[in-house]
Write a structure and sequence with these properties.
single chain, alpha/beta, Aspartate Aminotransferase, domain 1, Aspartate Aminotransferase, domain 2, 2 domains, 7-stranded mixed beta sheet, 4-stranded mixed beta sheet, 17 helices, 15 strands, binds pyridoxal-5'-phosphate
């Protein structure tokens, strides 16, 4: 039976990232329960949650240990904060775990409540650091076109997607955008992958010189680009980019909100792609999304700058009421324990093989021009003509049609920019469930193709 809340939804709810008029006609897609990698809607239909919600429920929808961790903490201390020297044991334990898991050079963890908040805070921290170094002119940020870094004023400014920015007067802080490292779509005719990488590094350097290196605070990048199109970087890309940034004394912010905690087959995407970040932003899989929590991880170099600035100003003047919330922190600590005890990363590496094999086999499908993936995250790109890579007109909404057809087959995937489909299942997915996911997706693609 349809949820009794459907009419109330249409009357009272303002939905994020939703076209508002069609929503009034179609109503909400109400999810009522979940178990393992599956969720059920209000009419009792079962779906494979092939997007882990929003790239986040790594441990699936029924992990009793996370429920128990939240319950125990709620009973012991449901709230306390981290301002003015105060602390809680779960927040301290989580910070220690995060620093120990992070790539070399990371020294401190600052806890927040979401990915956008983590990114906003990291951008502020970059300014604070340069001010501490007597370089107050270093204010601009560089991000890649099609980047998604969140929606708050600063995070939404380094995001480089029209559907996030238009109408909201973004970018609202100085953000410069460079080329998307998606070889299939943006390489020039005849350009090898290595030549493409070299060109992107040269273009970045030219952009830095044109803007003035002394005006640029930081470069921000997702190791694998998610919401902008589920795109993996070409080999050698991050090494080439980092060399340019180091040469011009520009900080590197790794936005690990999707990639962090096993998604790419390592604890962090930075480890998969040899990134040495000055700042890292985390959220989502940090708590398997059971409660909202995020973190900014800070290098020793930046931390020292913060200390000198705090000494000068009298305090490190930023924070949020719920940053390091003890219940969310306790759930995150338990999540990290589960990753370690069950060796979730080894599992991801194991099942990534059939996952990528089935993914790349879709490259033979008449609708698919490109497949890309790493670990348990992937994108497929729909084309009208494989030889020329020409796409269908935007009005045909091909990716949205595939997404709808997949839903009818009992699979949730997401249409993302570039007429692409993103696939990002819970990390607990089994090999058998991976085959079921791709069987459903193939049937959806066949159905859409048969209507053309
Ligand atoms: C890479 C990245 N950064 C930041 C964010 C923003 O996170 P939140 O939605 O928790 O604000 C997202 C969300 O999808 C993301 O994918």
């Amino acid at each position: 039976m349809t949820s009794p809340f459907t009419d109330a939804d249409k009357q009272y709810v303002l939905h994020p990232f939703t076209p508002l008029t069609p929503h009034q006609e179609n109503g909400p897609f109400v999810i009522t329960r979940g178990e393992g990698i599956y969720v059920w809607d209000d009419e009792g239909r079962q779906y494979i949650e092939g997007m882990s919600g929003l790239w986040c429920t790594s441990l699936g929808f029924s992990e009793p240990r996370l429920v128990e961790a939240a319950r125990q903490q709620l009973e012991t201390l449901p709230f306390s904060h981290m301002f003015t020297h105060r602390a809680t044991e779960p927040a301290i334990e989580l910070s220690e775990q995060l620093v120990k898991l992070a790539p070399a050079g990371i020294a401190r963890a600052f806890l927040v409540n979401s990915g956008s908040e983590a990114v906003d805070t990291a951008l502020k921290m970059a300014w604070y650091y340069w001010n501490s170094q007597g370089q107050p002119k270093k204010k601009k940020f560089i991000s890649r076109r099609r980047a998604y870094h969140g929606v708050t004023i600063a995070a939404g400014s380094v995001t480089a997607l029209p559907y996030v920015q238009d109408g909201f007067d973004l970018p609202a802080i100085a953000a410069v955008h460079c080329e998307t490292p998606h070889y299939y779509r943006y390489a020039k005719d005849g350009e090898s992958e290595a030549q493409f990488v070299a060109r992107l590094a040269e273009e970045l350097e030219a952009q830095i010189l044109a803007e003035g290196a002394d005006s640029i605070a930081a470069f921000i990048a997702e190791p694998v680009m998610g919401a902008g199109g589920a795109m993996t970087p070409p080999a050698g890309y991050f090494e080439a980019i980092q060399a340019v940034l180091q040469k011009h004394d520009i900080l590197f912010i790794a936005d690990e909100v999707i990639c962090g905690f096993g998604r790419t087959g390592n604890m962090f995407g930075s480890q998969t792609y040899n990134i040495t970040p000055d700042l890292m932003t985390c959220a989502k899989q940090l708590s398997s999304a059971y409660l909202p929590i995020g973190a900014v991880l800070v290098s020793e170099k930046l931390y020292k700058g913060f200390v000198s600035m705090s000494d000068k100003l009298g305090m490190f003047g930023t924070g949020n009421t719920y940053g390091g919330h003890p219940v969310a922190a306790a759930v995150a600590v338990e999540t990290l324990k589960i990753y370690q005890e069950r060796d979730t990363i080894a599992h991801v590496r194991r099942v990534s093989e059939p996952f990528l094999q089935r993914l790349h086999a879709l490259g033979e499908h008449p609708l698919i021009g490109n497949t890309r993936g790493v670990g348990l995250i992937a994108g497929i790109e729909i084309v009208k003509d494989k030889a020329s890579k020409a796409q269908y007109p935007v009005a045909d909404k091909m990716a949205a049609r595939v997404m709808a057809a997949a839903r009818a087959e009992g699979l949730i995937v997401r249409a993302v920019p570039g007429d692409s489909i993103a696939i990002c299942p819970p990390l607990i997915i089994s090999e058998e469930e991976i085959h079921s996911l791709f069987d459903r997706l193939t049937r959806a693609l066949d159905k859409v193709h048969s209507t053309l």
